[in-house]
Amino acid sequence: MILPAKFELCFFFFFFASSSPFSAKEETKTELILLFSKMFKAIAHFGFKKSSKPFKDYYDGWFKTLKNVLLPHLRHAMSSSATSGPILLASHVEVMHRHFLKYYEALDLAATNDVSQVLYPDWRNPFEKPFLWVGDLHPYLFTNLLRSFIGDSESEIDSDIFDKLQNWHVVMAWKSPSRKLTTGVDQIECGLRLMVPALAARARDAQAKFVEKMAVEWGKCEGRKQEMKGVVGESAAAEMEELVGVFVDANRLRRSVLSDILNVTDVNQAAVFLEALAQFLVGFRNRELLSQFDKCSLEL
C-alpha cells in the first residue's frame, strides 16, 4: 500500500474537514485563538525575547530533509523489505519518527523565545493554515489518517497483481487489523476528546486575560509613551508565559499521539502511516497546487 508520489490534496481537505470530531463552535474558538495571536506580534517591541533565527528557516531545512532524504529512503525500504528484512524497515521508521520528535522539540524552544512566531505562523501557506491548531497540526489529523487505513482494510486486491508484488506484507499491513490496534486507536481518540477541549479552553482564557491586562495597562499609561513601554511589557509578560505553556502542552499532546500510534501498530503499518503523513506535509507545498490556488484566489 505504498502511496503515490503525489497526494490528492483536495481529497484530504474534504476528508479531514468532514471527519473531524470538532463542532462548528469549537472551530470558531480555534479561529479566535489564531486571530488574537496576531496581537502578540504587534507588542513584540515591548521587550519580549526574540528568536535569533526565525523558526521558518528551521522548518524549511527540516522539510527539505523530510522530502528529499527521509521519505525516499523510507519508500525504498518499504519496496525492498521482502529482501532486506524488517530490521532495515524498522530503522527507517525510527529515523522518521525521531525527525518529527526533533521538530516538536525545536518548536517548543522557538515558543520559549518568541511564541508569536509559532502560535500564529504567518509564513505558513494557505493550504497549511486550515489544519493548524495552537500553532501546528491538529492531533486529530493523526488519528483521522490512521482511521482512513483501518476503514480501507476491507478493499480487495487483484490476485494477479498480488502475485507479482514483492512487498506484499507491506501492502497487506492493514488487512484484518488486530484487536490491539483498534482498541489502541479507540483509547487514543478517547484521550484526545478529553485533552483537546481542555487545552482550547486554557488558550482561550489565557488570551482573554492577556487582552484584558493589556487594555487596562494601556489605559493607565495613556499619553505617556515612555512609561507605557515598560509597564505594558511587564504586565503582559506573565500572561504570555501561560500562552507559552499552552503551546508546549499542545506540542506534548501531538508528540504523545504520534508515539502512541506507533506503539499500537506493527512495523509495516507504522511505515505506511508515516509515509502517508510525510507525503501529506509534502503535498502542502506542491507548487502546481499552490499555483492553481493562487489563480482561483485572483478569479474570486
TrEMBL record:
Residue ranges of every copy of the DOG1 domain listed in the record: 52-294
Q: Name one Pfam family in it.
A: DOG1
Alphabetically sorted, this entry's keywords are:
Signal
PROSITE patterns in alphabetical order: DOG1
Molecular function GO terms recorded: sequence-specific DNA binding
InterPro entries found in the cross-reference section: Seed_Dev/Stress_Resp_Reg, TGA_domain
GO BP of this protein: DNA-templated transcription
Signal sequence: where? 1-24
The record's listing under PANTHER family reads: DOG1 DOMAIN-CONTAINING PROTEIN, PROTEIN INAPERTURATE POLLEN1
What name has this protein been given in UniProt? Answer: DOG1 domain-containing protein
**Native organism:** Solanum pinnatisectum
What is the phylogenetic placement of the source species in the record? Eukaryota, Viridiplantae, Streptophyta, Embryophyta, Tracheophyta
